[in-house]
Write a structure and sequence with these properties.
Protein name: IZUMO family member 3
Radius of gyration: 31 Å
Organism: Panthera leo
Order of helices and strands: HHHEHHEEEEH
Strand content: 5-15%
Keywords: Membrane, Signal, Transmembrane, Transmembrane helix
Largest sheet: 3 strands, antiparallel
Family: Belongs to the Izumo family.
């Protein structure tokens, strides 16, 4: 049941917060650095360079998200370990940058090796950390990028061994996020209705104004004609 609520919770949290983070992405410069480093690896004259870069950058950045969100027990990591992983990845990309360009196919194969090594390292570190009971230093919640100061930790906070308590907490969070999504959706719908109504009223006023102007011109024309006829009869 807890896993079911977790699956339901994930898309709603994405909608509410416009994207959930991952262990490596908690560094504000991570995406920017990875994009810059990978971009420098591909010569400007390579055909389809833009598409190639966008796909490779997306795969590299999304890897951390896929691993840390695959299991709720793997959502936390010591801050210094996350820093070491980012440094390792940047060094690997620096090494590729010092190699001679041998074509897009070879390039993709080398980046695939880097991603596989990163995934293996990340899974191992997260799994090992989930089995730690007492830690030193700050802990990073990869889903929210918040730091946990407690030293008693084992996948989840110590003292929360009752699965019912954990499940109730997940249900409460799900209901909160669901409420936020409903409120945001209602606000957007109301805004859309108001804008549509305002546009319709504006169009109606414009049409009415044109109609009245036309009728006024007709009345003025008829009045002028009657005056002319009266002048002729006199």
């Amino acid at each position: 049941m807890g896993d079911l609520w977790l699956l339901l919770l994930l898309p709603l949290s994405l909608a509410a917060f416009h994207g959930v983070k991952a262990c490596l992405e908690c560094d504000p410069k991570f995406k920017e650095d990875i994009r810059s480093l990978i971009t420098k690896l591909v010569p400007s004259e390579v055909p389809g360079r833009t598409h190639l870069l966008e796909w490779q950058i997306k795969e590299m950045i999304h890897l951390s998200f896929k691993v840390s969100h695959g299991d709720k027990m793997l959502r936390v990591l010591a801050v210094h370990k996350a820093v070491k992983l980012r440094i390792w990845l940047k060094n690997e990309l620096y090494k590729l940058g010092n190699e001679t360009w041998k074509g897009a196919f070879i390039f993709q194969g080398k980046l695939l090796d880097v991603r596989q090594n990163l995934e293996s390292k990340l899974k191992e570190i997260l799994k090992n950390f989930s089995e730690v009971v007492v830690t030193e230093g700050p802990i990073l919640d990869c889903w929210t990028c918040l730091r946990i100061t407690t030293q008693c930790f084992r996948g989840e906070y110590c003292g929360e061994e009752d699965s019912r308590t954990a499940e109730n907490r997940e249900i409460g969070l799900f209901l909160i996020l669901l409420t936020e999504v409903v409120i945001l959706g209602s606000a957007w719908l109301l805004f859309h209705i108001c804008v549509s109504h305002w546009r319709k009223m504006k169009a109606i006023r414009r049409s009415l104004k044109k109609y009245l102007e036309k009728k006024l011109e007709e009345l003025i024309g008829m009045t002028d004609k009657e005056k002319d006829d009266s002048g002729i009869r006199k």
